Amino acid sequence: MPLLVHARQEDDIVNDDMQWQQLEVYRKHPLSLNKADIAELTSLGLLTSLQIDELINYKKQFGNLISIYELQAVPGFDETTIQLILPYVTVAESIKTGKSPITLLARNDLLRYRSSTIGMQLKKDNYSAYYFIKNHRKIKALAIGDFTVNMGQGLINWQAYAMGKNSMITHIKREGEIIRGSNTTGVNRGAAITLQQGHWETTAIVSLHQLGANISYKLPQAHIGINWLEHSVSMDYAISLRNYHLFGELAVNHRTATILGMLTSVGKSADLALFYRKFNTNYEPIHANAMGENSRPVNEEGLYTGISLHTIKHWQLDAYADIFHFPWLQYKTNSPTDGQELFASLTYTPDKETRLYFRYQYKQKFQQSKGNEFIPPMIETRHENYRFQLTLSPAKGWTWKTRVEANTWQDDSGNQYGGLYQQELAWQLPKWPLRCTLNYIWYSTGGTATRFYIPDRSVLYDYNLAQLYGKGAKQSCTLRWKQKKHWQAWARIEIKGTLTIQVVYSV
Question: Which residues of 260-273 are buried (b: 16+ CB within 10 A; e: fewer)?
Answer without folding.
Answer: bbbbbbeeeeebbb
